[in-house]
Specification:
Blueprint: H1 24-35, H2 38-43, H3 46-61, E1 66-70, H4 72-89, E2 96-100, H5 118-127, E3 135-139, H6 146-158, E4 161-166, H7 172-176, E5 179-182, H8 197-216, H9 233-247, H10 251-261, H11 264-273, H12 277-286, H13 291-298
Helix pairs in contact: 3-8, 4-8, 5-6, 9-10, 9-11, 10-11, 11-12, 11-13
């Protein structure tokens, strides 16, 4: 515990030492100026994020899954990113999974003491059926959360791919991981409150990992979410607009295609290749669900 005071995320920020004395607008301006530094910190980690995306995509093709594990804010952000993959990309909820110290109740109620047990981290990961072909992203701004380290060591013992996502350099987690993503965001506006800049950086990196992997594995066509599930009125409208954008048809025609096809990708394949639903679905299956690959092959 002696090294906590030396961590950049625990340091006192000289730009905000008199934050409580500032008028509201000036206070918010200072916070905003600190937030503006986050994207630059993330930019320095792009090579490691790219390495992660390619490695995870390759493991997906071999039947692997992606797991996030963390405590507190880090755990919540992992669960958030994982939970958004099924509706956005039509993947099963088991493909990307988020684990938080203290279990799902810790999403709403803080469970700080849960993060101190490396044994529990390993046990929670094992309980989810984690295997060698899977990937674990351990998330901790400090890079030294025992719960996360325990899980990473368990994953490492299986020969699985391990990623450390932190906001400090040269962390204990980085020493364990195959790939280290360290977005060094520096001292927080509120000393030690890593839900601020560190949390924002973590969210940006997780967005890149999951989105990048889904692009690589065929869930995206151009910049269109062709795997989106039209499960409510807003998403039906979005699906229709995606079909229209991809094919050039008008909105009523896109709506009719969606009704016929049952999915966005099938509708686009039907229209662009003049296929019926069964044929479009069969051709997509041969292309491993990649609309881009199917259309490239057809032309």
């Amino acid at each position: 515990m002696q090294n906590l005071a030396t961590l950049p995320t625990e340091a006192r920020n000289p730009a905000t030492e008199h934050l409580d004395e500032l008028p509201t607008l000036d206070m918010l301006r200072v916070i905003n100026e600190e937030d503006a530094k986050v994207a630059a910190a993330v930019a320095t980690t792009l090579p490691q994020i790219a390495q992660t995306v390619d490695a995870v995509a390759q493991r997906f093709e071999q039947g692997g899954r992606l797991f996030y594990i963390g405590a507190g804010t880090s755990g919540r952000l992992g669960v958030l990113d994982a939970s958004e993959c099924p509706p956005t990309f039509s993947v099963p909820p088991t493909l990307v999974q988020g684990i938080i110290a203290g279990g799902d109740s810790a999403l709403r109620n803080s469970s700080e003491s849960s993060e101190d047990s490396p044994e529990q981290g390993a046990a929670d990961l094992a309980a989810h059926g984690f295997q060698k072909i899977d990937t674990l992203v351990g998330i901790a701004a400090s890079g030294r959360t025992p719960y996360v380290i325990g899980a990473m060591r368990h994953a490492k013992s299986l020969g699985a791919l391990t990623i450390a996502l932190t906001c400090v350099p040269n962390s204990e987690m980085a020493a364990i991981a195959d790939i280290s993503i360290a977005a060094v965001t520096g001292p927080e506006v509120l000393t030690g409150s890593t839900r601020l800049k560190a949390g924002t950086a973590t969210k940006l990196v997780l967005n890149m990992i999951s989105t990048g992997v889904m692009i690589k594995t065929g869930a995206v066509y151009g910049n269109l979410m062709v795997n989106v599930q039209p499960t409510n009125a807003k998403l039906v409208d979005r699906a229709q607009r995606i079909i229209a954008a991809a094919t050039g048809v008008d909105k009523p025609t896109a709506a009719h295609l969606l009704d016929q096809a049952g999915s966005v990708k099938t509708a686009i394949a039907m229209q662009k290749l003049s296929l019926d639903r069964a044929s479009a679905e069969a051709r997509l299956a041969v292309a491993n669900g990649s609309l881009a690959a199917l259309l490239r092959k057809a032309h």
